[in-house]
């Protein structure tokens, strides 16, 4: 896995042909407008993709984020991003290499961006990219994987002139700051 991450980090600096992306964007009940265009969200997703994909970005409030985190990870709080990856269809139907729902909890992202004194859209870009990497099977379960994934995220964000999200002032403080795969 670490070698795959290193290769991906190196590849992030090249510009191969873009993968095909079917992107759906959903907003949960009582979630305010996020203020980021569909085109911008799409660019962030495409930057992190290494293969064709069908991805749904769902923006949720704290109650839905907490319920999902509790149901799928056994943690009773809302987290910033959850990634639900789906295996390839075994029925023979043509499926993209990556299929996933990425759930982003808007109040948590807002709170973290303020605490880290960074622009909200920069933090959102980081979490979208982080979720897409998880959707493709990348992990940060050990220190080597974490360092490689962080390097890849930083390289991808640099394309958008977004600062390293792992700088000292950007470290999450306390509960609710983790990003994980839910499935």
Q: What report would you give on this structure?
A:
With about 180 residues, the chain is of the alpha/beta class. It has one domain: Collagenase (Catalytic Domain). The chain has 6 helices and 5 strands. It has helices at about 1-10, 40-50, 60-75, 105-115, 120-135, 145-160, and strands spanning about 20-25, 55-60, 80-85, 100-105, 180. Helix 2 packs across helix 5, helix 4 (about 105-115) packs across helix 5 (about 120-135) and helix 5 (about 120-135) packs across helix 6. Mean pLDDT is about 85; it is low at about 170-180.
Please name the defining characteristics of this protein.
about 40% helix, 5-stranded mixed beta sheet, Collagenase (Catalytic Domain), single chain, about 180 residues, alpha/beta
What secondary-structure arrangement, pairings included, does this model have?
Blueprint: H1 2-11, E1 21-27, H2 38-48, E2 53-60, H3 62-73, E3 81-85, E4 98-105, H4 106-115, H5 120-135, H6 143-158, E5 179-181
Parallel strand pairs: 1-2, 2-4, 3-5
Antiparallel strand pairs: 3-4
Helix pairs in contact: 1-6, 2-5, 4-5, 5-6
Give, in order, the helices and strands.
HEHEHEEHHHE
> In which range does the helix fraction lie?
40-55%
| Count of DSSP strands | 5
How many discrete structural domains? Answer: 1
The chain-level mean pLDDT equals: 86
The spatial strand order of the largest sheet comes to: 1-2-4-3-5
Measured by DSSP, the beta-strand proportion falls in 15-25%
Our measurement of the CA-to-CA distance between the termini, rounded to an integer number of angstroms, reads: 18 Å
CATH architecture level-2 label: 3-Layer(aba) Sandwich
Shape by Cα distribution: globular
Poorly predicted runs are 171-178
CA gyration radius, whole angstroms = 15 Å
Query: Structural class, please?
Result: alpha/beta
CATH homologous superfamily designation: Metalloproteases ("zincins"), catalytic domain
Under CATH at level 1, the class stands as Alpha Beta
Largest sheet: 5 strands, mixed
Tally of helical segments: 6
């Amino acid at each position: 896995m670490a070698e795959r991450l290193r290769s991906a980090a190196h590849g992030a600096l090249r510009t191969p042909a873009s993968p095909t992306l079917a992107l759906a964007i959903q907003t949960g009940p009582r979630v305010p407008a996020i203020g980021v265009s569909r085109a911008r969200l799409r660019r962030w997703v495409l930057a992190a993709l290494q293969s064709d994909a069908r991805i749904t970005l769902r923006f949720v409030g704290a109650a839905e984020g907490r319920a999902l985190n509790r149901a799928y990870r056994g943690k009773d709080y809302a987290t910033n991003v959850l990634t639900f990856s789906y295996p390839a269809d075994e029925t023979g139907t043509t499926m993209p290499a990556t299929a996933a729902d990425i759930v982003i909890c808007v109040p948590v992202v807002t709170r973290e961006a303020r605490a880290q004194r960074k622009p909200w859209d920069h933090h959102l870009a980081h979490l979208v990219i982080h979720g897409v990497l998880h959707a493709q099977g990348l992990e940060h379960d050990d220190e080597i994987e974490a360092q490689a994934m962080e390097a890849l995220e930083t390289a991808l964000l640099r394309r958008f002139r977004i600062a390293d999200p792992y700088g000292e002032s950007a470290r999450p403080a306390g509960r609710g700051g983790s990003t994980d795969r839910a499935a």
